[in-house]
Amino acid sequence: MMAPRTEAAGDGAPGPASASSPPGGPASTAAPAPVAPAAGGRRSPRPDRAAWFFLGPFLALFLFAFVLPIGYAVYQSLLKVERHGPLGLGKPTVGFAGLENYALALQQADFVESFGRVLLFGIVQVPVMLLLALVLALLLDQLADRWAGLLRASYFLPYGIPGVIATILWGFLYVPGISPITEALGSASPEFLSYDNMLWSVANIVVWEFAGYNMLIIVAQLKSIPQELYEAARIDGAGPWQTALRIKIPLVRPALVLTCVFSIIGTMQLFAEPLVMRVLSPAVTANYTPNLSAYNDAFANANVYLAAAKAVLLALVACALSFGFLSLVTRKERRGR
């Protein structure tokens, strides 16, 4: 004989009988009721006053130090000096130029060539610098903490030297008759300051300055890798090379992408090194880089409006290259979502 269904429900198992129990019945047989949101607990999509209070100083500084200079540069790039009177000797006035300054900048062959020069510079210098930074980071990750700390500080030290001082230092090492490098190499010494080698002489200075900085970013990423992965690799019989190739390098990819973006932007802003080297070699012209060309227009030719147009063009190219690179390296991740 089968037991009544009401006895089975009395064992505490949830079922239709317990769900239909009248109010005031045993609590153990009641189905968990959905938690109703507390009155007034719904978050407003609009930030409250406290959020604006904390965001206010940052937004004010951001607008003053970042947005306002960009807006002012764009505004100046749309202006020009107009001269009146016989032979243009009258009092000059500032008028609206539209896109004339942009057209004039793009018509200057030296300015356009300077973009090609810095692009060639970046194509060679950025991979070399990041490869050196990656190798140094991997080697330091294998050393004991005491020696690794000392070497990290040594490699990072050039970044603490201002670019002008670093360029003067290397400039003396490039000048024949003064440099111990050229004296040691003798007739085999290359002409560091010649037109053909000047770009790579500047690239050597930039690598020396920034390889240690990029190395530190990669080292920080290496330190965030869980030790369990290294232990699992050792258990599976992986050696140092396999651990570096299959674990470390793939997991420091975000740091490599970040340093590459920084390097692309820095390449487009190349200025101090060629400006100092211009004193040592005629190979560096007034329009050697886009930044140097804008500087020359602003302070040598007294045409700040044309200089502003060149600066805006330079910013647009830097943005396009940076976002293009980010879009390229994150394409697989975006497809996987």
TrEMBL record:
Biased composition (Low complexity): 9-42
Main localization, broad class: membrane
Keywords, comma-separated and alphabetical: Cell membrane, Membrane, Transmembrane, Transmembrane helix, Transport
Subcellular locations according to the entry: Cell membrane
Region (Disordered): 1-42
Domain ABC transmembrane type-1: 115-325
Pfam families documented for this protein: BPD_transp_1
Classification via InterPro entries: MetI-like (IPR000515), MetI-like_sf (IPR035906), UgpAE/MalFG_permease (IPR050809)
Transmembrane parts of this sequence: 52-75, 118-144, 156-178, 198-220, 251-272, 304-329
Membrane-related topology note: Multi-pass membrane protein
PANTHER family associated with the record: BLL4140 PROTEIN (PTHR43227), DIACETYLCHITOBIOSE UPTAKE SYSTEM PERMEASE PROTEIN DASB (PTHR43227:SF8)
Family: Belongs to the binding-protein-dependent transport system permease family.
UniProt name for this protein: Sugar ABC transporter permease
Source organism per UniProt: Streptomyces marispadix
